[in-house]
């Protein structure tokens, strides 16, 4: 689990550097493949560690319950992540329209 957290930290640093580079040079063709690969690798290490933790902490007769709790925590985390992304997108779009009068004129004219 610690390896996954370290990889996640590295991934966030890479994301920040690539985003700063992209904004500085306004390149639209910059890909996000390295960031996604690092995030997926970190999730893999964290999920395996989490599943091992749940299996080690429950009695032998409740192993399936431990696995179910592990998968439930992962799915709830994904739902919360989707909710946060949706909220940020709605707020960002509203702020962008409010700040650019041309966008609001186009949007109101239909």
UniProtKB/TrEMBL annotation:
Family of the protein in this entry: Belongs to the major facilitator superfamily. Proton-dependent oligopeptide transporter (POT/PTR) (TC 2.A.17) family.
Coiled coil location: none
Membrane association type: Multi-pass membrane protein
GO cellular component annotations of the record: membrane
GO molecular function: transmembrane transporter activity
Name of protein: Uncharacterized protein
Keywords carried by this UniProt record: Membrane, Transmembrane, Transmembrane helix
Organism: Vitis rotundifolia
Domain of life: Eukaryota
Cellular location(s): Membrane
Spans through the membrane: 6-25
